[in-house]
Amino acid sequence: MTNSTHTMNDTQLRVKAIALLKTELGMATTLRFLALMNQNSTTDYVEISRQIYEEQQLDEIFTRAKQNWKS
């Protein structure tokens, strides 16, 4: 673990953790996991998704989505 995790605020930590889960588990399994963990949560997943994808180009996102759809 890097020292940068100690300087993150709660939102940044959530965003990073979800991005890592998505990388390791894929989007569908990550969403399933989050649903199981946060059944009574008020976490704003739309905002988290915006933060995850904000630095990515739309064509990158679509290309990756197409690749994941096939597998």
Q: Can you tag this structure with a few keywords?
A:
single chain, 71 residues, mainly alpha, 0% strand
Query: Mean pLDDT, rounded to whole units?
Result: 82
How does the major sheet shape up? none
Number of separate domains: 1
Q: Helical segment tally? A: 4
3D shape: globular
What structural class results from the helix and strand content? mainly alpha
Quantity of strands, as a count: 0
Distance between the termini: 30 Å
Order of helices and strands: HHHH
Radius of gyration: 13 Å
What proportion of the residues is helical, as a percent range? 55-70%
Strand fraction: under 5%
Report on the architecture of this protein.
There is one protein chain. This protein is an all-alpha fold and 71 residues long. The chain has one domain (3-70). Helices cover 69% and strands 0% of the residues. The chain has 4 helices and no strands. It has helices at 10-25, 27-37, 45-53, 58-70.
Brief summary of the model shown:
With 71 residues, this protein is mainly alpha-helical. The protein has helices spanning 10-25, 27-37, 45-53, 58-70.
Annotate the secondary structure layout:
Layout: H1 10-25, H2 27-37, H3 45-53, H4 58-70
Helix pairs in contact: 1-2, 1-3
